[in-house]
């Protein structure tokens, strides 16, 4: 059965255990089984404390990031691997099954031209190296296709599949996000289908990155499509209520995304449960 997760940007721009502890009753009430911890600066995380928090609460962690703009994974893959290494250490240290997000590049970095063959091949080579490093930490590596304003390297489920097939590593999966799909895909169903066997993790993100239900995403279609492809993994609500300063500008978050930030948890989570249940998408 699928699990519902929450990206911690819903409550704080950085992983903050006190903030999370204050929300524990709500997590229980809304059946939050997974928390996504941003690792934009892996050194910010206290690994032992975070692992203890997850073990005590039974909430599983998953980690995500985007690479900093100064890193060019094609010209200098070693710099990318050097950045990922501490992130892998933190992710495995806290007990995450994966490091996901834009692990293959920088959010907000676009060349101004379509992706070239060299860029595809160079990125695939980097992903192969990153997947090997992830495996040495017992981790999977997620690749998040993002919309055209955030990257020109990987925009759709089909792009994600092309990279997964080129890389051919069994610990690489596609991390797809409804916000980006809303911009790039023909339909949610087609986008999920295009991921094929590589669909591994889903971000449930509203069209304005605020509270699900207060935007234009067609959630019935999203859940109907997840049922159709038989997805039963983790789906995580991602809202940009409080964004880490390292990526706020790249995400173009200039004003509050929800009328009231508490709506993301208090209104968005019950809304998702309601639509999921009506669609026959079952959460544990
Ligand atoms: C980026 C995005 C996020 C990001 C993650 C980092 O547009 O959608 O998923 O990769 O928030 O923690």
From TrEMBL:
Domain Xylose isomerase-like TIM barrel: 40-242
InterPro entries (UniProt xref): IolE/XylAMocC-like, Xyl_isomerase-like_sf, Xyl_isomerase-like_TIM-brl
One Pfam family named in its UniProt record: AP_endonuc_2
Matches recorded under SUPFAM superfamilies: Xylose isomerase-like (SSF51658)
Source species, domain of life: Bacteria
PANTHER family for the chain: HYDROXYPYRUVATE ISOMERASE (PTHR12110), INOSOSE DEHYDRATASE (PTHR12110:SF41)
Protein name: D-psicose/D-tagatose/L-ribulose 3-epimerase
Species of origin: Aliiruegeria lutimaris
